[in-house]
Amino acid sequence: MKKNINGKTKIIGVIGKNIENSLSPLFHNQIILKYSLNFCYLPFQVAETDLSKAIQGIKALNIRGVNITFPYKEKAIKFLDEVEESARRIGAVNTIVNNKGILTGYNTDVIGFKKSLQENGKFIIKKKKAVILGAGGAARAVVYALLEEEIEEICIFNRTLEKAKIIKQNLSSFFPKSRISVFPLEEEDLKDKIEKAHLLVNTTSLGMPPRVDNTPLPDEKLFHPDLLVYDLIYHPVRTLFLRQAEKARAKIINGLPMLVYQGIESFHLWTGLKPEGKEVLKMIKRIT
Ligand code: ATR
User: Fold this and answer.
1) Catalytic residue chosen out of the listed positions 2, 10, 73, 127
2) Of 205, 234, 259, which is best to mutate to test ligand 1, by the most ligand atoms within 8 angstroms of its C-beta?
3) Which of 43, 105, 108, 194 gives the lowest tally of CB atoms within 10 Å of its CB?
4) What is the DSSP string of 175-211?
5) Phi and psi angles of residue 193, each rounded to the nearest 5 degrees, phi first
6) CB of residue 70 inside a 6 A radius of ligand 1
7) What phi, psi does 36 have (nearest 5°)?
8) Furthest-apart CA pair in the chain: how many Å?
9) 73 is known as an active-site residue
10) Residue 114 in contact with ligand 1 by CB distance below 6 A
């Protein structure tokens, strides 16, 4: 990739803990090149103990903005000056914009998830039933997106039940048309709830490198052909979770479309430009 950097180049980037496999730098820099913008997108690998300093550094270094990724989407909030309303309700941000020294947090995962379901899954959320695996920052955005579109029921399964309970507590009063229930990540309840579900989403990190043989579901027999199975992970392209779902003839989506659609929204917040989603997705598939 050829790029000219000069004294006026605006810096954007991503802050995360393990971002060696992140596609965001490649993806954003390709869009920057395509639009001939004087921006540069950089990876910032940050240890948890340095998160506060790193976010303060956005101001100090006059960085235009950053994405926030695993596992800082919730932790970053307390270091910001302002948080957009839906991101505040969700309790997680994936994007920070620096406006003349004021840092504002947004959550573009919500629109990224919705668009990918619509465009790639041809899935209508209203009145459907979903099972969500995990209750971290990514799960919060997924749950919020489904609630905004009036899903009938969401069952959240998480190893740490308390975290699922907090999501329910924080969001259910805003969305009285939908039902949220929470369970520990155990087979008995999973079987019953997945049987009745239309959508199954993995928001946990199980299946990411180096443990690519990991999967959040205890038994592959839990998949069925009437499910849309969605894994937020995009590296590897097909996790064990998705390969098993495919074997059970379920329709599958990996995390790439969501990465692209949320990225486009973040890019828009930093630059004012909004590239066409399908075109960017094609480009990313070509270069990865
Ligand atoms: P993100 O911001 O990407 O959602 P996160 O907030 O750290 O990241 O959430 C990670 C999710 O993966 C959590 O639901 C976590 O479960 P816990 O809440 O019990 O920690 C889940 N997860 C990570 N490792 C796991 C494991 N070995 N078994 C089960 N769940 C796991």
Assistant:
1) 73
2) 205
3) 43
4) -TTSEEEEEES-HHHHHHHHHH-SEEEE-SSTT-TT-
5) -75, -40
6) yes
7) 50, 50
8) 60
9) yes
10) no
Atom 6 (ligand 1) nearest CA: 136
- List the structure tokens of 189: 């309840």
- Look at strands 95-99 and 102-106 and give their pairing: antiparallel
CA–CA distance, 225 with 188 (Å, rounded to integer): 20
| Tokens at 139, concatenated | 């799960």
Query: 128 near 154, Cβ under 8 Å?
Result: no
pTM of the model: 0.93
Closest C-alpha to 40, from 26, 58, 20: 26
- Tracing tokens 């969501």 back to the chain, one arrives at 258
* End-to-end CA separation in angstroms for the chain: 14
Token output for 124:
């209508």
DSSP state for residue 130 in the 8-state scheme? E
Q: Which of 90, 93, 159 to mutate to test the pocket of ligand 1 (most atoms within 8 A of CB)?
A: 159
State residue 2's pLDDT score: 56
Q: Give residue 107's identity as a one-letter amino acid code.
A: N
Walking along the chain (288 residues) 10 residues at a time, the average pLDDT comes out as 83 95 92 95 98 98 96 95 96 97 98 97 98 94 98 98 97 96 95 97 95 96 98 95 98 96 98 92 85
User: Looking at residue 108, what is its pLDDT?
Assistant: 98
Q: Is the CB of 73 under 6 A from ligand 1?
A: yes
The best mutation among 204, 208, 211 to test binding of ligand 1, ranked by most ligand atoms within 8 Å of the C-beta, falls on 204
Distance CA 27, CA 274 (A): 14
- Taking the centre of ligand 1 as the mean of its atom positions, its distance from the CA of residue 160, in whole angstroms, is 8
